[in-house]
Amino acid sequence: MISVYKMTVQETRLCGLFLREHFGEVVEKVGTHLLRSGAQNLRTIVQETNLSVDLVKKCLCVLVQHGACLFIAGRKGPGSPTEYRACCDRILRVLRYPRYIYTAKTLYGDTGELIIEELLQRGHMTMSSTVKTVADRLTQNMEEGHSLDYSDVSSTFSKLVETHFLQRCPPVGGAGTSGSAAPAEAPATPAAPAAAISKALPTPESFPDCYTVPQVTLVGRGKRQLVPEDGEDQRNAKRAKMNSETHGDEGIYWQVNVERFHQHFRDQAIISAVANKLDQTSSEIVRTILRMSEVTTSPTATCTKPLSANEIFRSLPASYNIPRQILDQYLTLLVDDPMEFVGKSGESGGGMFVVNLHRALANLARATLESIVQERFGSRSARIFRLLLRKRHLEQKQVEDFAMIPAKEAKDMLYSLLSHNLVQLQEIPKTPDFAPSRTFYLYTVNQLPTARMLLQNCYKTVANLIERRLFETKENKRLLEKSQRIEAILASLQASGAEPEQLSEVEEMISAPEKQQLDVLRLHVNKLDSAENQVDETIFILESYISSTSTS
Amino acid sequence: MADRGRGRRTLSFIVDSVGISRGDSLPPAVQQPTPVFPVTEQKPLPLTGGEEAEYLTALKQDFRGAMRSLPCFIQPAAVHRDVERYSDKYHLSEQMDGLTDWIIDWKRFPKELRVRIRKPSRDGAALTCLGGGQSGQMKKKKAGEKEEVLLKLETLEKKEEQESSEEEGEGKNKQKEEEAEAEEEYDEEEFEEETDYIMSYFDNGEDFEGDSDDNMDEAIY
Questions:
Q1: Taking CB atoms and an 8 Å cutoff, what residues of chain A touch B206?
Q2: Which InterPro entries match (chain B) (predicted)?
Q3: Residue spans of chain B under pLDDT 50
Q4: Which chain B residue has its CA at the smallest distance from A47's CA?
Q5: Is A201 exposed, middle or buried (0-12, 13-18, 19+ CB in 10 A)?
Q6: Which of chain B's residues have a Cβ under 8 Å away from the Cβ of A21?
């Protein structure tokens, strides 16, 4: 992944905005300070941010709770204070939260959707509290008299754990948090002794029980929350919820495994690319291969484990009743395709086939870069860009010839691409003195640095979108507050059974031009939010590509 | 590199092989930073709409709204306006409810982050005060309240106890700030519980001042 230790200006800016939107400005201040200054202890943070100690402590608790900040025992030996380090990557993932929630919905229904949503909102929770909260929420939306049994939610939770979408939070070494685990379950064993924590932070997967569902005694049904009469009752109701039932899984906390979701998105991207380039059947074959390889392939693998054509044939979905020879033809087609998504690694079992994950990501990234150039500079500039990507180094004259573009226009396009840093100029001297008349000047495109640069552009784009949205909301703050108050009054009037005249009287408190202004604001905010989601798709492809190059 | 043409207009690369022939005009030299909103020749494509995109947008907005109401959303301390207002005493501090709602498992956090905020319970049990042991120098904002005096006595007590467990010495300002903050929190809670009026209905009418007066002949509610 992108290095934790060096953050770019754009990344820090974007992280700051996410922190502000989700946790408030105070947490933003502490978080961005940590991002900029690296690892620091509590005292230094308090001094440098000029905030009160307890405020900083609260902020750090919030950040640690959500995995945005890690703490390690002092590096300078025992007795030195705990150091805190913010995780830029984790904070940037906030942009992708809607996609995680939506994916859970498509795979595991509303229950799955709410489980993931709750865990993303709270950072980490025990299984029992998640199940209870989700059951209550689902029951709220059901008809009167119906409620959801805890066991339904528990089973969905277990499924999410089995498919690795949820994982246990790594136990905190030195604090000995096995908790009061139920006897049937083996206590979680930290992989490294407590003293070695300062060396390297263990990943959740280094703990053997990472994906073990604990034995929980959780019997009951979701509870419908009564509409509170006034503030007093609401507080009492909340206090009542903090009862001290135990379910056998105290101390075992769960978090969303974002890497697994990323694997899923990557697979989806590959499958849809195959569907676009070839046809539906080919994409189904690739989908089958990827599905069979889900648990056997590590997240950083270059390609999936080889599967024989026989195995693939047996695992095709029942609705795809293609004969064996046709399957072989499709596989040959996939292997021969210049996109190189599928490769042949052997002849046994009717042919051994793999999906080339890294090459697929590189190709997807390349297509993204080409598309960006095309949309910003036109299709002829895009042609030049594609040419340089494939042919590596070309002279001015060669560019003009291969791209079949007249010299003058080719020159302009090249210079405009050059000024945007999408194309570089490489000097190859013929003589040691680099004399201009005796030097080759070659144009070139390097995919990886260009991808990095455009990724930073994407971060900047998202930050700009958020700032614009905040600006629009601030401009119309008074109007928004008024409309919210009126809605609240309407809701309470409706709940207490008011006459239609009263309701329309309240509705008229907002004038027509104000309504229009609100509609325009709503339209703008929706557009900006939707744009953020769309930029995230590009960010995902570029990030996946860049991180695949660092591991291969 | 030493001889850069001494003010003559020579370029660093040979003109021919890069492609500009003599006589072609080079683009004008850039005199100022590029404009903030440059004119683009190509218009961007419209956003992909569709059900999925709308659902994702709705999820995003809901998530944002939900986060604001969670205990982990920390509001900055209320900005003191120029004049002290009567309504300041009665503002509903919703975030105080949230803090008690968030049960932290302290085993997962370093000990030094342990922050104890307890509301003053009705039997007058001790308030755990946060921060340094500066005694006696408290601002008396709202004088003459019985509960407030009790509060102050208790906090003084607690402060003397807490001084020994204090880790770092802090500046006087910080302590005062904390005290003021802690006081503010407790004061508001005390008042919340003591009035006869329902907090949520309190409206000082100030916020409506900015409204336009068209068609507003009678009182709003």
A1: none
A2: RNA_pol_III_Rpc31
A3: 23, 94-98, 119-144, 164-192, 209-212
A4: B170
A5: middle
A6: 64, 67
